[in-house]
Amino acid sequence: AQSVTQLGSHVSVSEGALVLLRCNYSSSVPPYLFWYVQYPNQGLQLLLKYTSAATLVKGINGFEAEFKKSETSFHLTKPSAHMSDAAEYFCAVSGASGTYKYIFGTGTRLKVLA
Amino acid sequence: DSGVTQTPKHLITATGQRVTLRCSPRSGDLSVYWYQQSLDQGLQFLIQYYNGEERAKGNILERFSAQQFPDLHSELNLSSLELGDSALYFCASSPAQGRTEAFFGQGTRLTVV
């Protein structure tokens, strides 16, 4: 069965500091991995996706993530946090078991301090 | 704008009632997914349809049912509602099944009183 674990339900960073949100996945087959962002009272918006091409994936708003098979990780980073990055971030996995449903992590709420 | 439309945006209803949530996927997308988001359960996968056929089932209660119509829109029916069913219900669509990203609607916030 596939699963996703996001370490840290809340992360606080200062404006301008590095953002690192952690995601580890479990999958018996090559996964497709995604990061989504959710702003208050809105739906989920795709930040970036890994679909077995380049292991370093660049997304919108300056975010990127690196797929590391040996560590079963897909951590999300941004070099310099902006106040507008404050939101909840979800890691998701799909692509196995013939059903292709998207399994989401529990989310990480990012707070950016002025 | 993701291109996925969900109606209504808000719904307040009493316990024991039945409601229908509607989702129009992005043009051309064949897969529709339903998710429930609540504070204590997070984002829970409920059910997936692909081109009118049920393809995957998650933690969907027997009181809940869904279908996808020939024009590809989908409806989620929730019956015998309980206070614990209060949540944000999201619909998502994708052109294929899981190999590409899913596009999410804005959600329907259901409040059961």
Would you write up a description of this structure?
The complex is a heterodimer of chains A (114) and B (113). Chain A has 114 residues and is an all-beta fold. Chain A contains no helices and 11 strands. In chain A, β9 and β10 form a beta hairpin. Chain A is globular and about 40 Å long. The model of chain B has no long low-confidence stretch (mean pLDDT 93). Chain B is globular, with a radius of gyration of 13 Å. At the A-B interface, β4, β5 and β10 of A face β4, β5 and β10 of B.
Give the CA-CA distance, first to last residue of chain B: 31 Å
The helix fraction of chain B, in percent, is: under 10%
Rounded Rg of chain B: 13 Å
The whole-number mean of residue pLDDT values of chain B reads: 93
Give the ordered list of helices and strands of chain A: EEEEEEEEEEE
Instruction: Give the largest interface pair and sizes.
Output: A-B, 22 and 26 residues
Query: N-to-C SSE series of chain B?
Result: EEEEEEEEEEE
Number of strands of chain B: 11
Individual helix count of chain A: 0
Oligomer state equals heterodimer
Major beta sheet of chain B, specifics? 7 strands, mixed
Give the CA-based shape of chain A: globular
What is the typical, i.e. mean, pLDDT of chain A?
Answer: 91
Strand segment count of chain A = 11
Look at the helices and sheets of chain A and give the structural class: mainly beta
Give a summary of the structure in a few sentences.
The complex is a heterodimer of chains A (114) and B (113). Chain A has 114 residues and is mostly beta strands.
List the helices and strands and how they pair.
The complex is a heterodimer of chains A (114) and B (113).
Chain A: E1 3-7, E2 10-14, E3 19-26, E4 32-38, E5 44-50, E6 56-58, E7 64-68, E8 73-78, E9 87-94, E10 103-104, E11 108-113
Chain B: E1 5-7, E2 10-13, E3 19-24, E4 31-38, E5 42-50, E6 53-57, E7 64-68, E8 74-78, E9 87-94, E10 103-104, E11 108-112
Parallel strand pairs in B: 2-11
Antiparallel strand pairs in B: 1-3, 3-8, 4-5, 4-9, 5-6, 7-8, 9-10, 9-11
